[in-house]
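agent> fetching stored inputs for the iron/sulfur cluster docking request
agent> found them:
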Amino acid sequence: MAYNYEAIVPFLLDWFDYNARILAWRENPKPYYVWVSEIMLQQTRVEAVKGYFDRFITALPDINALAEAEEDRLLKLWEGLGYYNRVRNLQKAAQVVVYEYKGELPPDYEKLLQLPGIGFYTAGAIASIAFQIPVPAVDGNVLRVMKRIAGSFDDITKENIKKELWKDILQVIPRDRPGDFNQSLMELGATVCIPNGRPLCEQCPVMHLCKAFHNDTMLLIPVKPAKKERRREERTILLFEYQDKYAIRKRAAKGLLAGLWELPGFEKKLNVQELMKLLNEWGVTADTVTSLGEAKHIFSHVEWHMIGYHVIITDAIRELTQKEEFVWANRQEISQKYSIPNAFSAFTAEIKEYKVKF
Ligand code: SF4
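agent> prediction call returned; pasting tokens
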């Protein structure tokens, strides 16, 4: 029999009143702020998002500014958060909002759902937190918390299970505090009923109502099928330097890290001899070649296992630039203008010494 969540509502609201973390987008839950924060929080922890959020809102204070921002500036503001499609969709949606809703997010759950990059969870979060519309906001955190409370072994990756939970929450969501209720679930999932390792049940306001706690099944719930193994790719990354400038190039418009700037490289790991041979074939004379060591970067479906070299070159710059479509940028330009994703951070750290200004 389905669990009746009604009893947990007052305990969660009371707990939230005293335990909610102070966050800029909570202190001032303007629809735009809630929206930007929710998009940033997908795949990224609250602590990491705080700085990015402040910087983003300072640079682009409203939806009109977001809609009009140049792509490179937008990507630079997102640099480090990853999953860049999120910010591209954010801008596409902002353009629709400017065009169709005069620059203000519509206070309507169904209309929010129509906007690019806004799914059930984000529409529910914006509608409930910014507009006090009583709709659920069900994400992985909420699924974990609710399935533990219910002691349920349902597979939470199944769409019908998500929809059922959405409907169950809709039955009990308090009409006077829908945003606080949704946030109390998110907050409990982030700080108490945590995903990896043992949840902190002794601090939980609904421990006495939680079936997983009573049955000691907290670590068995939520149930998810085993993930497919990630594809492993080997790469060589080259930090080409010529007269205090570094070679970068734009990635293809589609696929992984689409349209972002990268350090040039090859899809295999080269040792020094192989690298020297290749430079020779290109007609490039290297003044020095220094190893930058190895690094790994994990994407959702693929892992990059990389080796890096710092290659200071003295000639053949024109040929190289034409052949490989390089842009040569100095440290300041790389820090302030070009967005190079985190995947390359092991090899860009030493050239990103300028503080970013917008
Ligand atoms: Fe999660 Fe433990 Fe609270 Fe149950 S009692 S909701 S398992 S923290």
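agent> quick read of the result: The chain has 17 helices and seven strands.
agent> awaiting further instructions
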